Amino acid sequence: MFKTIADPADCEVRSVIRFSNANKVKQAEIHRQLVEIYGENGMTDGMVRKWVRQFNNGSTNVHDEARSGRPLLVNDGLVAEVNEEIRENRRFTIRMACDEFPQISKSVLHENVTDLLNYRKL
């Protein structure tokens, strides 16, 4: 039994797929080996099929493509900070949160406060 590798980088798994595909390893066998080494969360059979197809079509890039749009700035630490501010001042409003956390839009703040933190207006 091989040692399982937890939380591999996506490009690492794609590199394994590219290498195995170049060695004429069948897609099902590539997936079986990935599950054996990286566990069930490594990559689904459908994703392996997608990447094998891309490499067969001449793609050589194993890295994520650059995406346009605004990057996600909300993480668990920031949500915890918002929660702490609310706990310190029960009269804390979304408008006050916008002043306190200018990097987060009002709608995203509202969503996090109501959905993630389960605070509701009384």
User: How large a portion of the residues is in β-strands, by DSSP E?
Assistant: under 5%
Number of domains: 2
CATH class of the largest domain: Mainly Alpha
The rounded distance between the terminal residues' Cα atoms is 57 Å
Share of residues in helices: 55-70%
Q: What radius of gyration results from the CA coordinates?
A: 22 Å
For the biggest sheet, the summary is: none
CATH fold category name of the largest domain: Arc Repressor Mutant, subunit A
Look at the structure and give the mean pLDDT: 84
CATH architecture of the largest domain: Orthogonal Bundle
Q: What string gives the helices and strands in order?
A: HHHHHH
- Helix/strand-derived class? mainly alpha
Number of E-state strands: 0
Number of helices: 6
Low-pLDDT ranges: none
CA-based shape: elongated
Describe this structure in words.
By secondary structure, the chain is mostly helical. The protein has two domains: 10-57, Arc Repressor Mutant, subunit A, CATH 1.10.10; 76-116. The protein is 56% helix and 0% strand. The chain contains six helices and no strands. The mean pLDDT is 84.
